[in-house]
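Summarise what follows for lecture notes:
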Amino acid sequence: MMIPFSVLDLSPVVTGGTVAQSLANTLNLAQHAERLGYRRYWLAEHHGIPGIASAATAVVIGHVAAGTQCIRVGAGGIMLPNHAPLVIAEQFGTLEALFPGRIDLGLGRAPGSDQATARALRRNLAADENQFPRDVVELMAYFSGTPATQAGQAVHAIPGEGANVPIWILGSSLFGASLAAALGLPFSFASHFAPAQMQEAIHIYRTQFRPSAQLDTPYVMLGFSVFAAETDDQGHFLASSMQQMILNLRRGRPTTLQPPVDDFLGRLAPHERSMLEEALSCSAIGSPASVRAAMTEFIERTGADELIITCQIFDHAARLRSYEIAAEVRGG
């Protein structure tokens, strides 16, 4: 199981907690992950969700990078339609100047919010399936030092021009797989919450991949949820907080991260239970032995080059322990 493990963090805001506390926990977890040998620590851009504190993603990345020494820190991801490519080039060019050789930039095309919030962020929700690929190419050009031309004038990203910031394409469908393959970029699939098209997306990416200046061969990182504890019962108990969060989102009532409850799935209607089991089908829940078995099977089935692990657990100490068990399983 000796592939790299990384961390995906949403800076969870727990019921009764504060954003300040969540961001302090994020830094503490990043330092913990660095000691445990995780390769990278990514923050996700979401907006208008009470239980997520990482909306200003570039700012939180700076906070984490400043408090760690060597772990790569990045965005998993920046939702590029919410931003002008020039702004992202400047932000991540600045981060790379401050923390050279440690910054990653994962790009997604989802809003990371509801439609009203997306409208407030973007002002214009006009659909154009080609805009995201064009924006990615424009952003890559800023980093490479090829100026964009607007109204007949060259536009440079300062900072940003010449910055060594690896770009990743994120996806939860086949679109991202095709784009990552066409551009020769590494691909990260959101199998931790949207696993339905994972295998097909991996196949498309690997078979259609074209080498690029950044990457010679395909590289797939897959999202995976881990809720690890000393026993299976404890693991399932901890996982109920994430199950509640997903269910509340699907019901259109997002909340802070709720305390765990016993037998949460047993309290649900069959269709809700089925939805949660499908959404979290790419997960390892339970004791170290159960987690090892689930992770080994998943890696063998998918051929993943790297796993990025998310762990939405209410109690911070239990969350630290879950990542510790995952690292022990990898090493064992």
